[in-house]
Write a structure and sequence with these properties.
- The chain is α+β, with helices and mostly antiparallel strands and 199 residues long.
- The chain folds into 2 domains: 24-65 and 145-198; 72-140.
- It is built from 3 helices and 5 strands; from the N terminus they run ααβββββα.
- Strands 3-2-1-4-5 form a 5-stranded antiparallel sheet.
- The longest helix has 55 residues, at 144-198.
Length: 199
């Protein structure tokens, strides 16, 4: 009867390679426990981070709603073509074209000024702009869908950052344990060498 083939040592799980190895030391087992513990902690942090993000959502939604209620959308008519934008290859900032336009202010009076427009906008084009409580042209307010997406991305980024932190801690601990094991190995070899000379 053929014996059941043993599993190659390099393919065995990390824990089995340590606990099934009579040469494994306490530091080896501690390293396995630390690795497993960090992985479990990282996975268990998912519901915790999700709960924290859910708790933040009412505040974020309220802020978005306040901004949306504080601005007014109106139609602007372009009085000139969009400016020609020449990108600076040495600058990382995005330069957007502008054009002169006219629109009705919050008090109903006509207002004219320069606004940011799309590339290739022509005179006579209509464009929606947003005015704050003082009648100043401001950026388009964030939607609740965008805010929710950013909150999800922030939560995911926090979870990944926690994973990187755990990984860095694991590697630093492994480096420290490796150094300790090398010192112990050198001390044992020195002791063995001294014993062999004495005999």
């Amino acid at each position: 009867m053929n014996a059941r083939p043993t599993r190659p040592a390099h393919r065995a799980p990390l824990a089995m390679r340590v606990w099934g190895n009579p040469l494994a030391r306490g530091s080896d087992r501690a390293e396995v426990v630390l690795t497993v513990g960090l992985v479990i902690a990282w996975l268990l942090s998912i519901p915790l981070i999700a709960t924290m993000a859910s708790a933040q959502w009412p505040s974020v939604e309220s802020q978005v709603a306040d901004v949306q209620h504080s601005v007014t959308a109106t139609e602007a008519v372009l009085l000139s073509d969009a400016d020609v934008v020449i990108a600076d290859p040495h600058s990382a900032s995005v330069v957007q074209p502008t054009a002169t336009a006219t629109w009705s202010g919050r008090d109903g009076r006509p207002v004219s000024g320069s606004i940011v427009v799309r590339v290739g906008a022509r005179i006579g084009d209509h464009q929606t702009i947003w005015l704050d409580e003082q009648g100043t042209v401001v950026d388009r307010p964030m939607t609740t869908q965008t805010a929710a997406g950013l909150l999800v991305l922030a939560a995911a980024g926090g979870w990944l950052a926690l994973g990187v932190l755990f990984l860095a801690f694991r590697r630093a601990t492994g480096w420290s344990l490796d150094r300790r094991r090398r010192q112990m190995w050198e001390a044992e070899w020195a002791s063995f060498d001294a014993g062999s000379r004495s005999t």
